[in-house]
Amino acid sequence: MQTKTPEFLAKGTYGCVFYPSINACSGKIENDLDSDHYITKIQKYLPTQYDEIVIGQTVQTLPLYDHYFAPVVKSCKINTVHMDYNLVRTCATIQNELGELNTTSAYVSNKIRYVGKNHISKYLQRLKTTPQKLYSKLINTHLHLLDALQLLDSEDIVHFDIKPQNVMYDEIQDVPIIIDFGLSRTITPLLSPSFSPIRNNDDEAPEGGQRYLEQSGEQFSKEFEKLMRHTFVSYDTYDYWCIDIYILSNIGSTTYLKPYQIVSAGQIKTILRGFITPNVLAVLSGDEVHHFKKRIADYFLSFAQENKTWMDVFRVLIQNYKKWDNYSAAMTYLYSYMKAKSTELTTEKSNIREPVEIQQYLSLLKNIVIAMPYERPLAQETQKSIREIFGYSEPERESEDESYATESTDDDVFY
User: Which residues form the Protein kinase domain (predicted)?
Assistant: First the structure.
């Protein structure tokens, strides 16, 4: 049964989202029978599309997955010739430079569960006039999100794109839902023994010196570089990426950093100059930023001082992969809270007005942002720290699907 006409909902880099969902796989524009419960994302076909589909299938095997995630549940390649031009022209990314229907590119249609129209930052902004409710939802939604990250960790999946726009607030279930697995990757292939360091334990080159290292590097170079480019899609600075991902993206996406090349201080300084983003500057004080810059410089320059290779850097940083999304979640909640309060988090006035537990919570998140890679906590550890701040007990794992739905109410007070 046809419901309301599909409408443009949002635009992304490679395509657009329409709601109610469209049965574009049939070669025409019409509603699905269950279209009110789904959206359709039509976008240019990319080689990474396969990853999103496979990861979506894995996510759907996780316990109570629809309480935490909204992955792609159906996908197909489509021909835009069959599409309704009146609908297509609302989406600039599937038009050519003349504003006409682009029939030269390949497109895919992805069906995804509809989980509401407000991402977490917008939802929290709606609560800014009722601080008690804001604090309650801030903490409970973050705890729920950390549960979701632990589920991804269990499958060695890194989302790589946790940010306010990809954490939607499902007002029916009263929980945040992670969406958009387009950048998500399973990290297991990069943990292969074939990428183990060739350097000796004493950090001296084997017999044959640098020439041996270069020849050995060539043996793995093609496979390694292909996998790195596939996993780390860009070396551009991204607001919600930790320094580990940024460094690894440079290793994977640039031509001047070779796996078995000795790290130089000049290379480190050049890379680090691009890391501090507007969001980092927004959530940290000037002193915190200065201290953070010095610490990351000292940490990564130590690789050059110890004559390490970029492969050595990779092997150290890749071990932290289960902590990366936790960093992004901390940035998401710091930034969302800042937007909700409409004031700098570091001002004296803000600190006075906030309960001490909220101040401790914000301090915890800041410490995650400024932590060195080896210091950064796992999602489970952050969740435990938050519970300790607010005096929460651990929920029963077997009734986890009900714990957040019943635990949080508008009148909850945690301080």
Answer: 3-390
Q: How many CB atoms lie within 10 A of CB 243?
A: 22
Q: What is the CA radius of gyration of the chain?
A: 23
Residue 171 and residue 48 share a domain: no
For residue 48, the 8-state DSSP code is T
In 10 A of CB 132, how many CB atoms?
Answer: 15
pLDDT digit string (tens) for 25-72? 766 656 666 788 999 888 888 877 889 999 999 999 999 999 999 999
| Domain-ending residue, one of 83, 114, 145 | 114
Asked if 232 contacts 51 with a C-beta cutoff of 8 angstroms, the reply is no
Question: Is beta strand 69-70 parallel, antiparallel or unpaired with respect to 175-179?
Answer: parallel
Same domain? 386 vs 287: yes
**Element at 38 (helix H, strand E):** strand 38-44
Q: How many domains does the chain have?
A: 2
Q: What confidence score (pLDDT) does residue 161 get?
A: 94
Domain range enclosing 298: 118-415
d(CA 125, CA 310): 43
pLDDT higher than 50, residue 369: yes
CB 229 within 8 A of CB 252: yes
Cα 370 to Cα 281: distance, rounded to the nearest angstrom: 12
Residues 129 and 92 both lie in one domain: no
Number of other residues whose CB lies within 10 A of the CB of residue 278: 10
Whether 220 and 92 map to the same domain: the answer is: no
The CA-based angle 264-265-271, given to 5 degrees, is 95
E-state strands within 45-134: 69-70, 72-78, 107-113
Average of per-residue pLDDT across 79-99 = 67
Q: Kindly report the backbone phi and psi dihedral angles of residue 291, in degrees, each rounded to the nearest multiple of 5, phi listed first.
A: -65, -40
Decide if 359 is inside a domain: yes
2 assigned to some structural domain: no
CATH code assigned at 103: 3.30.200
Torsion of CA 151, 155, 160, 165, to 10 degrees: -30
End position of a domain, from candidates 84, 114, 144: 114
